Prior knowledge:
heterodimer; A: alpha/beta; 5-stranded parallel β-sheet; two-stranded antiparallel sheet; about 15% strand; binds adenosine-5'-diphosphate
Amino acid sequence: MLSQFFFTLREHQVPVTIPEYLTLLEALKGDVIGPNIDEFYLLARSALVKDETHFDKFDRAFAAFYRGVEAATGPSHEIPLEWLRKQAELNLSAEEKALIESLGGWDELMKRFRERLEEQKERHEGGKKWIGTAGKSPFGAYGFNPEGIRIGQQESRNRSAVKVWDAREFRNLDGDVQLGTRNLKVALRRLRRFAREGAASELDLDSTIDHTARNAGLLDLQLRPERHNAVKVLLLLDIGGSMDEHSRLCSELFSAARAEFRHLEFFYFHNCVYDHVWNDNRRRHGARTATWDLMHRFNADYRLIFVGDATMSPFEILRPGGSLEYMNEDAGADWLQRLTDVYQRSIWLNPTPEENWGYHYTIGVIRDLMGGRMFPLTLDGLERGMRALARKGPLL
Amino acid sequence: MSPRFTGSKTYVATDDLRLSVNAAITLGRPLLIKGEPGTGKTRLAEEVARGLGMPLLEWHIKSTTKAQQGLYEYDAVSRLRDSQLGDPKVHDIANYIVPGMLWQAFESDTPVVLLIDEIDKADIEFPNDLLRELDRMEFYVYETRQLIRAKQRPLVFITSNNEKDLPDAFLRRCFFHYIRFPDKETMEQIVEVHYPGIKKALLREALEAFFAVREVPGLKKKPSTSELLDWLKLLLAEDIPPEALRTDDRKSIIPPLHGALLKNEQDVHLFERLVFMSRRS
Ligand SMILES: Nc1ncnc2c1ncn2[C@@H]1O[C@H](COP(=O)(O)OP(=O)(O)O)[C@@H](O)[C@H]1O
Ligand SMILES: [Mg+2]
């Protein structure tokens, strides 16, 4: 019954994990709460939900769970704590622990379990059959389940449970990983070039030894600045109309980049870059910077990152005068060429899902103009992009 | 049976907060506390320490703080200097190992409360770098080949202002509590704790005005409990009567000494402009 709580949470997209669930069970065994559903609610929330933005989902899940409890124990504000405690029995013997190890260890087990849960999420109906029911799944076999089967005694059952896992194909869940600023930052970190700048605060041992020796053995301390990420980034963001649907993603990327790079310059364009870019994103009213000036002001040390969907009419890229907004003397393609000539390390990040790139002719055009250095704005794409930025020239 | 925190005469702990604190105490897990600035996150650790009669160790995190500093630092420079001066101390490296907050917490003979304040100020990897130490309650000092193991599990309180997301692996190990901004009733209690015997009429009017200011749309920084307490201190010192705070139409008055509530100049302007506009209409 209590394990059902866990599944209810997962079904409601509350990102709880097994270790957290175990913590809850442990707390139920300890004397943290009285036999009171309100306290159980608070305890469960504190143990399972680590982000207040999930509280609402948790509340809805809890309501659904509680309807089930009522059905089982009758309507009451008091839950029999003994009943709950029984759910929490989880005493693994030494043999059982050894068995877990033999199956690849706790982490491996949890990993598989997580994958199973993901699958269950997809196949909601059938899912309970192979996770929720006592003893028929590894979950049950490890005693998470109220009637959990003790492993050492039920070898045959246990082995069949293992087969169930092995029969399942491992899924690469990475693609599902939420972007979020934290993940973005971690991905951006691949782009690092350390340099020492700022106040001298760190002992420079080699130099100290050198100076001390020259100083006839009298200590002559040498300090130097700490190492920082000194990579310089020029970010050009498309704020054309079709980018609106990607605005949240782009602003997350933007805030992650701001936090990660001390030297970040950013400008905005509309669909394609021409002879000027905008200094702030209220495009039509703001100040502009000539693209030539941009290339003079920021030297070739800068890594150039375009962010845009590259979705427009081909004229906007290929023809002089193709811009929708004014009469551009040179074609967008010429400007792209000039920029990528100056900034040998450049990429284009595209928020359009990669599988849809084929449907837009201009995505292919820009991608070619970028020498193939276009990447989707996903974690994986970002990582590939950061690797590409580490070296010059076209991709092979 | 582990000790329990029941709130104190100087701190108002809501039921849900108490429960989270006690769960963390009982299971010996860290408690992560989030909430707007001024919601009493830092104070909580102090109060729990006082309430349970434990010493409090405070580790205030800055953007440059490294996890290692919480364990220990090796002061090579002092040692080098001492060697030049021929100080005999120099022969033992242990003289130059400076214990950090975690070490001090582990070494203590009685259990302590360890506050890691504003963890989100540090580099995003900082919490991960402390995972193992907080989990196992031990770490190794390579220089002296010493294993430092907690004699007593400290109660670890961690606060965050939500400036950065914390890593999942770290979050999984903590109990979590989000301190919601106090409602009027709770706020009354908090004020009474700080100004016992404050006149009911003044308190009521002041809270009305305070919550009205918080609702002004577009403020850069809404006034928090600290600002309310500061403001009340001024009102009391200047002996402002409750009537001065009251109007039929809350919108059309600028509360006296409102500079204590709105510390940001832009917010003050915005507020004054809004009040001015609503007076005209
Ligand atoms: N629940 C409370 N009970 C008593 N005082 C409180 C409470 N919450 C906040 N305060 C007061 O508000 C001020 C700010 O608290 P602090 O702990 O520094 O906030 P935070 O760390 O969340 O920014 C302190 O002076 C504290 O006394
Ligand atoms: Mg604080």
